[in-house]
Amino acid sequence: xxxxxxxxxxxxxxxxxxxxxxxxxxxxxxxxxxxxxxxxxxxxxxx
Length: 47
Prior knowledge:
Distance between the termini: 11 Å
Number of strands: 0
Strand content: under 5%
Number of helices: 3
């Protein structure tokens, strides 16, 4: 269960890594984060 929770947070780890390394992402990051948040909410509410 913990591994599944951590894998759902993978986009947030990538964003954190990009902030630390000063990487400039040209894509729309917030749309992807919104989809991940919906997936986390669905996983939490169905358990």
